[in-house]
């Protein structure tokens, strides 16, 4: 049964590739719903299957098993012509921009419109509108070789918007950019989503990208969906090892803490680490060791986390956890 406002629905998807020696399964039992108008993140480590999944969404790769529904249409049942027409409603931007080097910025943006059969003058008018939208109106006659990485990606975004798509797929769109440029591109995507209502799917291996722009996220681990939900919920209460690895900073270096009782405290809004921890120490008459702490901005809301090593005394440790929970904080015992 389809969910209300679902623009992309994936059911029991599997994708395998046959090589000379064996069969490699890139995706297993993928079930996912992306709702109209949201910014949805798909995150995983290199080789997890993210890029294969995004190519299955627009049927550049045909799934081995399962179904992909776009705007209520079963992609597997579309004719070649119907599929090409449907793909016009799915814009795509890439890590390496994929601009035509022999064309100006206006020429690049006009290209998909030419393929769609849009009259030349109408196409140029639309291209100039989009170039203004992405803040590059003065670069209309520039060639890709004359643009910075961030400017190239802005042109690529304008090109992806040319046919008024319902969905924008971003496959590692900021991985080749420096942090400052990444923030500006993410801000642009967020503005496009707010102004135009376009659903955006962000494929990335960087948790900071998910935290900055996405409302919901699916975590891919070993070719499967490990966990899915709202970004703030997964940050607050990660349920799987794959999610905890992304949420905890320097997760790969935490093995030395195995065996210690630790408590993770999550702060929302304007909560501060120091008074809560200090008051807990005073109330329970025992010190704690701070393992790490950080703050994040998730969908415009401030979040923080701190992990403390609890005292060896069981009663005191339990008292501390109870104290934190009484303050209305998310406080859970974790194994690091």
Automatic annotation (TrEMBL):
CDD domains, alphabetized: ABC_MetN_methionine_transporter (cd03258)
Span of domain ABC transporter: 8-247
Single biological process term from Gene Ontology: amino acid transport
InterPro entries per the UniProt record, alphabetical: AAA+_ATPase (IPR003593), ABC_transporter-like_ATP-bd (IPR003439), ABC_transporter-like_CS (IPR017871), ACT-like_dom_sf (IPR045865), MetN_ABC (IPR041701), MetN_ABC_transporter-like (IPR050086), NIL_domain (IPR018449), P-loop_NTPase (IPR027417)
Keywords, ordered alphabetically: Amino-acid transport, ATP-binding, Cell membrane, Membrane, Nucleotide-binding, Translocase, Transport
PROSITE patterns the UniProt entry points to: ABC_TRANSPORTER_1, ABC_TRANSPORTER_2
Pfam family, one: ABC_tran
One Gene Ontology CC term in the entry: plasma membrane
Listed GO MF terms: ATP binding; ATP hydrolysis activity
Membrane-spanning residues: none
SUPFAM superfamilies: ACT-like (SSF55021), P-loop containing nucleoside triphosphate hydrolases (SSF52540)
SMART domains tied to this protein: AAA, NIL
Family designation: Belongs to the ABC transporter superfamily.
Name of the protein described by the UniProt record: ATP-binding cassette domain-containing protein
């Amino acid at each position: 049964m389809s969910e209300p406002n679902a623009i992309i629905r994936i059911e029991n998807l599997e994708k395998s590739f046959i090589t000379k020696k064996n069969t490699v399964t890139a995706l297993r039992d993928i079930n996912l719903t992306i709702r109209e108008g949201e910014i949805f993140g798909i995150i995983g480590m290199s080789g997890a299957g993210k890029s294969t999944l995004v190519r299955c969404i627009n049927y550049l790769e045909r799934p081995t098993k399962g179904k992909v529904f776009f705007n209520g249409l079963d992609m597997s049942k579309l004719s070649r012509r119907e599929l090409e027409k449907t793909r016009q409603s799915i814009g795509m931007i890439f890590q390496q921009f994929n601009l035509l080097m022999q064309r100006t910025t206006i020429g690049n943006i006009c290209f998909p419109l030419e393929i769609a059969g849009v009259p030349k003058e109408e196409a140029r008018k639309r291209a100039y509108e989009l170039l203004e939208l992405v803040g590059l109106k003065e670069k209309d006659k520039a060639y890709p070789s004359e643009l910075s990485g961030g400017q190239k990606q802005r042109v690529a975004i304008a090109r992806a918007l040319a046919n008024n798509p319902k969905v924008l797929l971003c496959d590692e769109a900021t991985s080749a950019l420096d942090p400052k440029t990444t923030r500006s591109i993410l801000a642009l995507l967020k503005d496009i989503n707010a102004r135009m209502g376009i659903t955006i799917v962000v494929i990335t291996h960087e948790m900071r990208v998910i935290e900055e722009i996405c409302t919901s996220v699916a975590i891919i681990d070993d070719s499967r969906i490990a966990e899915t939900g709202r970004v703030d919920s997964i940050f607050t209460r990660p349920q799987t090892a794959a999610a905890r690895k992304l949420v905890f900073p320097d997760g790969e270096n935490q093995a030395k803490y195995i065996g210690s009782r630790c408590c993770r405290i999550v702060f929302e809004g304007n909560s501060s680490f120091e008074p809560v921890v200090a008051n807990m120490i005073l109330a329970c008459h025992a010190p704690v060791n701070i393992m790490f702490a950080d703050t994040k901005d998730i969908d415009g809301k401030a979040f923080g986390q701190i992990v403390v090593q609890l005292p060896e005394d069981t009663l005191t440790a339990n008292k501390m956890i109870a104290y934190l929970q009484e303050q209305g904080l998310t406080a859970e015992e974790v194994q690091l």
